[in-house]
Amino acid sequence: MSSNKKIKKYIVLTGVLFLFPIALLLLFAKGSKHKFNTLPYLDEQGVHEIALGASINWDTIHGLPDFRLTNHLGNTFTRDSLDGKIWLVAFFATDGEFVLDATKQLLWPNYRYREEKDIGILCLTLNPTHDTPQVLNEYVTQNIKYNIATDKWQFLTGDEGDIRSLMSDGFIQRDTSDNIATFYLVDFDKHIRGRYNASLPDAMKDVVEDIALLKKEHDIKAAAARNANGH
Questions:
Q1: How is 112-144 classified by DSSP, letter by letter?
Q2: Number of structural domains, the chain?
Q3: How far apart are CA 72 and CA 122, in angstroms?
Q4: What is the pTM of this model?
Q5: What does the pLDDT look like over 201-211, one tens digit per residue?
Q6: Do 202 and 165 sit in the same domain of this protein?
Q7: Is 112 in the same domain as 215?
Q8: Structural domain of residue 7, as residue ranges?
């Protein structure tokens, strides 16, 4: 056998060995259903693991209650104002002892998703007497200088009783009313999907990754809805 024939035979054999595993992978992938592990739903009863696409009785899933507060621009901010975004939620006062720690933690996801218009940060003051819209606006302005969308960071104030009620009725499993180390992740449908101890070193890494999961979940749901409507 000539050297040229040997080379050709070697090339063909190598190609077969390389392509065969890929063909098997594509075959099994085509025959299997897409699986995507998303985040659980959190409420006072605990953690609810619900598969994507499963039928859900929304009456049994905790959602944020109605509220009416004022943001750092002096505008009314309600539950409906949360529409169309994933929100990372935190509670602290700008004159509080740990405001720098809370701000430092929030800046990471804020910068990471600075170009994403459907991801926001929502802070609620624990000292509405001090944190007027003017004070809050100065704080927010310092933190959004790299943001494309200026409405990504909202800081709310208002009646202290209303804020405390929202904390206790909406954001479950808080350790204490002044515990600013607890952050929450709220999805597009205003359900709590993550709870984080922001004092832990990997907390914000988890937040960034979980936001990506919620965005992917939202994209999959949107694609399924389009397919169901024949688009």
A1: HTTT-TTEEEEEE-S-TTT--HHHHHHHHHHH-
A2: 2
A3: 11
A4: 0.79
A5: 899 999 999 99
A6: yes
A7: yes
A8: 1-32
